[in-house]
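On clarity, I found the account of how folds are encoded harder to follow than it need be. What matters is that the chain and its backbone geometry are given together, residue for residue. I therefore recommend that a typical entry be quoted early in the introduction. An entry of this sort, consisting of the sequence and the corresponding C-alpha cells, reads as follows:
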Amino acid sequence: MSGALLKLPKEQRARLARELGRGEIVLWAAAPDWRSAIPAVLLKLVFALVVMGFVLTWEGLAFGFFWDAWFGANRSRTPPVFAAIFALFGLPFLLIGLAGLGAPVRTLREARSTLYAVTTRRVLTLVGPTDGRTRSIPPSGIRRIERRSAPIVGDMITLVHGVETDPEGDKVESTWLYGIADAAAAEAAIRMLIAADPAPSSPDASGAARPA
C-alpha cells in the first residue's frame, strides 16, 4: 500500500482502493479542508432565502385573495376560480424553494466527503459519500495546470482538460481541486503522471504553474 493511501482515514482509504484498477498505484491523495466550501455554502443559502422570501410573499398574497374570494366578502372582486389558480400557481415554486434550502446542506456534506487522488493512470475526484460521483481525467486530456491560493478556499489546482475539437476550436473544461494542504505535491504528482504517459500532451500541461 502506498504512503499516500496510508495518510487517509480508514473509510476514505477503502473507498479509494475500490476505485483502483489492477496495477494502478496512488501517487498522491488528500481530502480537502471542508471549510473551503463555506463561500459556496453561504452563497447558496442567501440565494435560497431570497427565493423563499419571494415565494412566501407570493403565496401569502395568493392565499389571502383565495380565502377572501371563497369564504370572505370578496372585497377585491376576484373571480373565485382565478383566486384558486393564483394560489396553486405558487406551489411548485414553494417546493423549489424548499429544495433550495437543502442545497447548502448537500454542498457541505459533499465537501466533508470529497477525495482527490493522482494515480499512475489518471486524476481522480470522488465527491459525496460511498454512492457519490467519481470522475477520472486521463493524462492525455490535460491541457493546462494552474496552482494558486485564494482567501478562504486556500490552495487549489485548476486542471483544464478536454480532447475533442470542433471548427470553432477546442472543447475544454476545468476541474478544480480546492482546499488541499499541499498543492505543490499534488501538482508534482500530476506532472509526473503526464510525463509518464505515452500519449502526447499539451505544452501548457508540462509548463510552469501559473501563480495567482
Confidence is low (pLDDT under 50) at residues 206-212. The radius of gyration is 25 Å. Residues 139 and 197 are 7 Å apart (CA to CA). Residues 38-71 form the longest helix (34 residues).
